[in-house]
Specification:
By secondary structure, the protein is α/β, with parallel strands linked by helices. The chain is built from 12 helices and 9 strands.
């Protein structure tokens, strides 16, 4: 039996109420040469019953609960397709997602991954501003990239919004999975960007349902762990070409600044101070450095200033 061209991997944890919506969005694709692998990450709900009711081309795979990175990697290990797609169990592909991303990969053998635009939900499906300035076509990281483009280098790299060559994903070990619940995708895709060309599609091809997301910064969780790009960067540095090492240093610093502000906002000053200690280049961003020091020195005052800015406290 001939292997499918595309393997679609759907990690799911207690998403029985939503996973059929994700599966149906794949089954209604205009491109048809695919398999669907749903990896049940130790669910305690009716996920198994919902998924197994479909039959081929939908496959059900179970594992003990280990997190989204481990679930995606399980799917990678059993996938037969030359191209890999990663759809979260509560998100939806537009009907032409596979058609347009497969055409891009087929037509550009030099490209390692195709990214598409996204709609943000829950219902009114807005196009996020971080896609401003991105044009459809082949893109490659430039050693001279600077300014506002540095933190946006992974714009469009939502796992569910891309299609990648299987050999490229496997080359970097797939997603980070060592007790990781945040940033397991960033760890993989920054390595891909450092080493491969990307085909970017400006058109939104994914509906990212922010109302049901249980992962990442859209989840509303009160605490965020440190991302593995900060705590375990050595493999990234080993895979970084010499021409991009200065960029990687700058990108990690800018990413750390964003993380520090988030950690402080969540009240986790210990993690914020850890990031300051391990990424001393933060001091080069003088305004951010001063704001961070003020927030750490006067946490109560920083909260009052935020509320004044939002108009919640009279001046």
């Amino acid at each position: 039996m001939q292997a499918p061209r595309v393997s679609v991997i759907i990690p799911s944890y207690n998403r029985a109420d939503y996973v059929s919506r994700a599966i149906d969005s794949v089954l209604t694709q205009t491109y048809r040469d695919f398999e669907i692998i749903v990896v049940d990450d130790g669910s305690s709900d009716a996920t198994k019953e919902v998924v197994t009711a479909y039959g081929p081309p939908v496959r059900y795979v179970y594992q003990e609960n280990r997190g989204p990175g481990a679930a995606r990697n399980h799917g990678i290990r059993v996938a037969a397709g030359a191209y890999l797609g990663f759809l979260d169990s509560d998100d939806v592909w537009m009907p032409t997602f596979l058609e347009k991303t497969v055409v891009a990969l087929d037509g550009h053998p030099e490209v390692g991954v195709v990214t598409g635009g996204i709609y943000l939900g829950p219902m009114d499906r807005k196009i996020p501003s971080h896609l401003d300035g991105i044009e459809t076509g082949v893109w490659e990281l430039s050693p001279g990239l600077s300014g506002d483009w540095i933190p946006r280098v992974l714009s469009g790299f939502c796992p569910a919004a891309l299609l990648a060559r299987a050999e490229v994903v496997r080359k970097y070990g797939g997603y980070y999975e060592q007790r990781c619940m945040l940033g397991e995708d960033v760890y993989l895709w920054i390595q891909v960007v450092l080493n491969h060309k990307v085909y970017r599609i400006r058109e939104p091809l994914l509906w990212y349902d922010t109302a049901t997301s249980g992962l990442g910064l859209s989840s509303g969780k009160a605490h965020y762990p440190l991302e593995p790009v900060f705590t375990d960067p050595d493999p990234i540095w080993r895979n970084c070409p010499d021409r991009h090492r200065e960029f990687l240093s700058t990108w990690l610093t800018v990413h750390a600044i964003t993380a520090i502000h988030i950690q402080i906002a969540k009240g986790d000053h210990q993690n914020a101070r850890w990031l300051l200690e391990h990424f001393p280049r933060v001091r080069e961003w003088r305004w951010d450095w001063l704001r961070i020091r003020f927030k750490l020195a006067f946490p109560g005052a920083a909260g009052i200033l935020r509320r004044i800015k939002r108009g919640l406290v009279p001046c």
